Amino acid sequence: MPVQALSIDFWNTLVEARVNGRARQTERLRHLLSLAQAHRPKTTPGEVKEAFAETVRRFETVWKTRHCTPVTEELVRSIWDRLGLAVEPEAHAETVRLFQEGILHHPPALVEGAPEMLAWAAERYRLALISDTMFSPGRVIRRLLDAQGLLRHFDAFVFSDETGFSKPDVRAFERAALQLDATPEALAHIGDLRRTDVAGARRAGAVAILFTGVHEDDDGPEPDRILPHWRQLPDVL
């Protein structure tokens, strides 16, 4: 069946997560340490870093084994619990907001060629964004895409914090196809991870296109096609 619609991953497909990633991490840890020391002055940076790292490890375990993603509020609460702190609701809410909106203040870089090829694809296909979310929820990613001039190219969005499931759950791809008025078999999905993007797309019956322009991933099933650079999209399709 010919491809009638496209779904596209966000992290390390449209944007490079490592760009400004350290700045986002530093800001989060600095905020956590300041608030933790306001409650318990002897709290050390090492304790905060370990609580943060353990929460990230827990997130990854849930993401990989249960195919869903804990939301930011839950992740921040986990950090307080690991530090043994009872943080006031207002301070907790401010911390959640800072974590969520970090990509607006320290945005990841657009992958080379992505804006031009999105514009090209939007003239020929209906487009959906499928993203597993961690600290940055769908509503914030939409704001970032709007600021980058890319939001207008998408007809549908499937964010794991909004649906309650994440790739490779076939429902993510079925939800995208439904919103695009297409069948999963008429959908081509582009993403950088074999375990989530390729495996999920293939299970749903969609064409699985592995994007290798940011990094090479060999952990998971073989894709139907490989996209080394966004400018090669017309030939790959």
Describe the protein's architecture and organization.
The chain has two domains: 5-17 and 108-236, HAD superfamily/HAD-like (Rossmann fold, 3-Layer(aba) Sandwich); 21-105. It is built from eleven helices and eight strands. The longest helix has 22 residues, at 45-66. The mean pLDDT is 97. It is α/β, with parallel strands linked by helices and 237 residues long. The strands form two sheets. A six-stranded parallel beta sheet has the order 5-4-1-6-7-8. It has a two-stranded antiparallel ribbon with strand order 2-3. Helix 2 crosses helix 3 (72-83) and helix 9 packs across helix 10.
Query: Which percent bin holds the helix content?
Result: 40-55%
Number of strands: 8
CATH second-level architecture of the largest domain: 3-Layer(aba) Sandwich
> Number of helical segments?
11
| Number of spatially distinct domains | 2
For the termini, the CA-CA separation is 12 Å
Rg calculated over all Cα atoms: 19 Å
**What is the assigned CATH homologous superfamily of the largest domain?**
HAD superfamily/HAD-like
Strand and helix order: EEHHHHHEHEHEHHEHEEH
Shape label: elongated
Average predicted local confidence, pLDDT:
97
Q: Structural class of the helices, strands and pairings?
A: alpha/beta
Largest sheet: 6 strands, parallel
> Which stretches are low in confidence, meaning pLDDT under 50 for 5 or more residues running?
none
CATH class of the largest domain, anyone?
Alpha Beta
CATH-derived topology of the largest domain: Rossmann fold
Sheet-strand content, in percent, reads: 5-15%
- Spatial order of the strands in the main sheet? 5-4-1-6-7-8
